[in-house]
Amino acid sequence: MGRLDGKVAIITGGAGGMGTKHGEFFIREGAKVVVADLESSNGQKVADDLGENALFVAFDVTDESSWESLVNKSEEAFGPVSILVNNAGIVKQNSIAETSLEEYRQTIAINQDGVFLGMKYVLPSMKKAENGSIVNISSVAGMVGGTANLAYTASKFAVRGMTKAAAAEFAEFGIRVNSVHPGVIRTPMTEQEGIKEMVQEMAKDIPLKRIAEPEEITNLVLYLASDESSYSTGTEFVADGGLIQVM
């Protein structure tokens, strides 16, 4: 038996990076997976690679009607949703003085508004399933402040707080809500020009002396999605190699 047998999972930002790794592990553990992403060509390829128990849905994480359509298509294909991984996100490194209002609002819309909309629109489906687990991907930047990433930090602190509020509100329905706070992970995002150099320097100060591999975070997300974490809700789960202990 798989750890996610009989469960239907939506993974936002599922067409690349950590989202793809989550999908691979979820399928392996018996879940039916909806890969949700704005990136249509790659998203369809990811779903095809995952096999018959995966579906790609093109959607915009910041758009309400897109969320409503995503949940409806998920139910039509596989039944009520029992897992939501709010994984979609962006990061732009800039000083406060050099961050435009447009850049700030874009980060908030994707990283924060997208999480709110996901929790709101998946709730009726999880009520049908009579249980559920929502895993909101925050960051160590949602635990401590840092330079040159105010918009990202603001959005990730918000995700942490919204997780706690939703956990309190959804508990009566048997729905758990937790946040995951990764440190530095080896993904396409951290390989971006201008970010890669900063990441390499940061790795020197991590107590474990390395950045995380994607599967190290996915294993934590998988645990929270599964019934193994049945008594955990409203909690931050940090996986950062000890980074915030020295920040």
UniProtKB/TrEMBL annotation:
Keywords: Oxidoreductase. It holds the Pfam family adh_short_C2. The keyword Oxidoreductase applies. GO terms for molecular function: oxidoreductase activity. InterPro entries: NAD(P)-bd_dom_sf (IPR036291), Sc_DH/Rdtase_CS (IPR020904), SDR_fam (IPR002347). Belongs to the short-chain dehydrogenases/reductases (SDR) family. This is 3alpha(Or 20beta)-hydroxysteroid dehydrogenase. The lineage of its organism: Bacteria, Bacillati, Bacillota, Bacilli, Lactobacillales.
